[in-house]
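Task: encode each sequence below as C-alpha cells.

Item 1
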Amino acid sequence: MSQLIFVNLPVKDLETTKAFFGKLGYQCNPQFSDENTACLVISETIFAMLLTESRFKEFTGREVADSSKTSEVILALSAESREKVDEVADTALASGGSPVKEPVDFGHMYGRSFQDPDGHIWEVMWMDPAAVESHQC
C-alpha cells in the first residue's frame, strides 16, 4: 500500500473553505467528515483534513496561528502543465483566494501561489520532466 499523507489545517468557516476547494475541483470524503471536519481529497494519496479551529485545538492543545501575520506551512502541489498551474491559480483567485507573490518562471519550472480563505499558502508547480530526469540531488 502507498503511504498516505493527511495534512491537518485549521479553518475559520468550514462551509466557506469547502466551497472554495469545491470550485477548484476537489471533493470531500463524507466518510471522514462531520460538522467540524472535512476530509478534502486532493489525490489518491494526499488529503487535507479541514478542521474548525476549535476542533484543531483539541489535537494540539495550542493556539491556532494567525495566518494573517504568520506562515505555518507552504503546501505545494504538482501540476501536469504550465497551463494547469495557471488554471488552478486563476480559479483560486476568482473563488476567494488571494495572491501571495509573483509567478516563478525558470523555464524548466513554473509556479504560482495563492492563499485560501483561511490564509494557508498553496503553491502549484510544474516542472519539465526532462529537467527532472537530469537533476541529481
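Item 2
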Amino acid sequence: MIAIVNYGMGNLRSVQKAFETVGLEAVVTHDPEVLKASEGIVIPGVGAFYDAMENIKTLNLEESILEEVSKGKPFLGICLGMQILFDHGYEVEKCQGLGLVEGDIVKIPEGRKVPHMGWNQLNINQESAILKGITPGTNFYFVHSYYAKCHQDVVVASTDYKMDIPAIVQKDNVWGIQFHPEKSGKSGLKILKNFGELI
C-alpha cells in the first residue's frame, strides 16, 4: 500500500486515481500510523513552499515522514512535494524544507515566462529505475514558478527552459519529480508504475 500524504494542498485524488489506474493500492492520509504501515510514501502538491511546510508542521507530519525515510522506505515527492524535499525554499519568505536532498528552491530567473507551464521534453542525465521504459525526449507536463538549485549528482533528468531545470532528482530511497506524472498521459503513468515496482 502506498500512502499519499494529505497536508491540505494538492490534487490528491488525481494522484490516487493515477496509481489505481496502474494497479497500485494508494490511500490518502495524514495519519502517522498509516504512513508507518505503508510500503511507500508519496507527497504530491500544488501551491507555495512556505504554506506546505507550515501545514506539515501543524499536522505533526514532519517527524513521521523523516522517520519512515530513514528506514529506507521508497519516497516520492511530486511538484511542490519534490520542492519541499530540499533544504530551503524562498517562496513567500525563506523557509526550511525537509532537508532530504541538498539544495534550495529558488524562483525561475527573469527572461523566461513564469510560471513554466506546459509540455516539455525530458533529458535523461543518468540511469534510474524510476525511468524504466522512458526514452529521452519524452514530453511531460510542468506547472511551476520555482525550481531546484542543486548538485548535478542528484539530477536524474532535466528539461530545457532556456536553462537546465531539474525534472527528476534522486538521493538513495528518495525521488522527486518536478512535473505532474498524473497529468502526463501514458508516460506519466509509467513513471508512477515504476515507483510502485521499487517497493
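Check on item 2: The chain has a mean pLDDT of 96. The longest strand covers residues 164-171.
End of task.
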